[in-house]
Q: What sequence folds into this?
């Protein structure tokens, strides 16, 4: 006995005349939810469909906004752990350093500890791969370019930063920096989204565009960049959207942003945040500090003021 398969086909129906068939392919341009057999039927049905169409579009927009906010206001995953001490990396970039030899991000506590033990011939040795530091700006750029060839997002972002500021002997080139930021962002660099957002906000190498700036800040915030998150909070506060601003500040405070903690304190003083809001922010900020603190990191911060890995709480 042979098995035969049957394929069910669903006929499309014109919303105006009721005609069925595969040639009913003319869709409502606005809601995309009804079909017509031709443009004439679409035009004749427009006055009957308008109310339903507008309601469909409104509900679709509300649903899309709700889904977007659910994603936007979800606490992002923390930064990865330091590959040496296995403690959570600090959110402040002064508390961690990118090693252009091996592409590892290492906390300042570990770099300071290993490098302080190095011999004179091994000054600033990499704690992970034991490579010596680059001997010149040119050598530094060569190392970065090698990492870039491997699609290392951090290396690409860093080169964008160097072009933006004209460092390592590179000419200041904001357009080149923006190009690199976009490439790094596509590879997962959340800091790059923040830099792109600032470019659109301030009109650096592009036309000023607040909508695009907010879009890129949101991408950065959802990826865990506290600077981008804080900027969103500040923007919402200036627009009078205090509930949304508070949500952003609370998320950023949980990831160690002291500026957002200070912002919540100010909202509390103004009666725009509750005592519970401020207490929650303080507790979550302290929990973050407990996760990232170590004797090695404290020693590094005491050794060099530029090695700060957290800002003082308010």
A:
């Amino acid at each position: 006995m042979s098995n035969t398969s049957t394929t069910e086909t669903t006929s499309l129906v014109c919303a105006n005349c009721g005609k069925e068939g595969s040639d009913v392919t003319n869709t409502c341009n606005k809601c995309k939810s009804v079909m017509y057999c031709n443009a004439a039927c679409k035009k004749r049905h427009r006055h009957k469909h308008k109310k339903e169409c507008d309601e469909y579009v409104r509900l679709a927009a509300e649903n899309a906004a709700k889904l977007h906010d659910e994603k936007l206001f979800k606490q992002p995953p923390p930064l990865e752990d330091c590959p040496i001490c296995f403690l959570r990396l600090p959110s402040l970039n002064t508390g961690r350093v990118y090693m252009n030899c091996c592409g590892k991000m290492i906390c300042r506590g570990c770099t300071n500890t290993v490098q302080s033990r190095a011999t004179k011939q091994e000054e600033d040795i990499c704690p992970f791969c034991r490579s010596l530091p680059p001997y010149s700006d040119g050598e530094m750029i060569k190392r970065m370019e090698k990492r870039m060839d491997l699609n290392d997002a951090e290396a690409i972002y860093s080169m964008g930063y160097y072009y933006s500021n004209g460092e390592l002997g590179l000419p200041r080139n904001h357009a080149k920096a923006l190009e690199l930021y976009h490439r790094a962002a596509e590879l997962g660099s959340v800091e790059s989204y923040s830099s792109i957002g600032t470019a659109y906000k301030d009109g650096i190498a592009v036309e000023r565009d607040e909508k695009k700036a907010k879009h890129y800040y949101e991408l950065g915030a959802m990826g865990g960049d506290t600077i981008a998150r804080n900027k969103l909070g500040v923007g919402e506060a200036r627009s009078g959207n205090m509930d949304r601003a508070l949500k952003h500040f609370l998320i950023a405070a949980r990831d160690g942003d002291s500026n957002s903690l200070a912002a919540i304190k100010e909202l509390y003083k103004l009666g725009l945040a509750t005592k519970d809001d401020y207490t929650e922010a303080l507790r979550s900020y302290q929990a973050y500090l407990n996760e990232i603190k170590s004797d090695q990191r404290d020693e590094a911060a005491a050794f060099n003021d530029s090695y700060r890995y957290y800002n003082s709480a308010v």
